[in-house]
């Protein structure tokens, strides 16, 4: 039985005041329940947002980290720095990191390994571009991302990972993958996990859908038994929308 997970990714939005206000409103409405909730805020807000969440069941997440422990890496943040701030989850390999900051599968692999070593749960993002979907390359692209991001990751380590399938063409565009597309592609990812790590592991790993998730499409997306939750961008910036997404099972 996989516990559903709803993760909010604020990206480079909000400030201390609006962020604190948002998490207070959310934590007032979200009690410890059958769904895990994570808020991934920008680095400078982690300390304050973490304090606001200290009495709540909502967990703190970061949006990126470096794979080295310390050193001359200007502008970077280590896993240990995140741990000091109470971070439990970290998004790794988001398509915006891959595309804008040219992160490769190799870099993503090193980050996943380091997060696991430090017991921060990596939310590994994978997903295809529009032209890749239109030219029937989705499975090839995903296989390549998965194989190369999970090099030398053991079965035991893989059981701790969360995978987020985010079709790049659905991010921030208002275009959601149809529930059938999301279910089919996430089914492919689970099949890949089974091939690589065996059935027991493949049934343990949580796989999220991300890309224009809103209160009015979450129930439909979650109908697929293979989909265990969502990575939410824009709608995680609005308390009512995010709360309604978290409470998706009640709105179906
Ligand atoms: O990390 C979140 C995703 O990039 C989805 O963003 P979005 O919900 O604004 O489309």
Give the assembly state of these chains. Answer: single chain
Number of DSSP helical runs: 13
Bound molecules: glyceraldehyde-3-phosphate
- What share of residues is helical? 40-55%
The helix-and-strand class reads alpha/beta
* CATH-derived architecture: Alpha-Beta Barrel
List keywords for this structure.
single chain, 252 residues, alpha/beta, TIM Barrel, 8-stranded parallel barrel, 8 strands, 44% helix, binds glyceraldehyde-3-phosphate, glycolysis, cytoplasm, TrioseP_Isoase_bac/euk, Triosephosphate isomerase
Characterise the protein shown here:
The protein has 252 residues and is of the alpha/beta class. It has a single domain (5-251), classed as Aldolase class I (TIM Barrel), CATH 3.20.20.70. 44% of the residues lie in helices and 15% in strands. The protein has helices spanning 16-29, 46-52, 79-84, 95-100, 105-117, 130-134, 138-149, 155-158, 179-197, 199-204, 215-221, 239-246, 248-251, and strands at residues 5-9, 36-40, 59-62, 89-92, 121-126, 162-165, 206-210, 229-232. The chain has an 8-stranded parallel β-barrel, surrounded by 5 helices. Helix 7 packs across helix 9 (179-197). The mean pLDDT is 95. Residues 9, 94, 166, 171-172, 210-213, 231-235 line the site of glyceraldehyde-3-phosphate. Keywords: Cytoplasm, Gluconeogenesis, Glycolysis, Isomerase. It catalyses: D-glyceraldehyde 3-phosphate = dihydroxyacetone phosphate. The active site is at residues 94, 166. This is Triosephosphate isomerase. GO terms for molecular function: triose-phosphate isomerase activity.
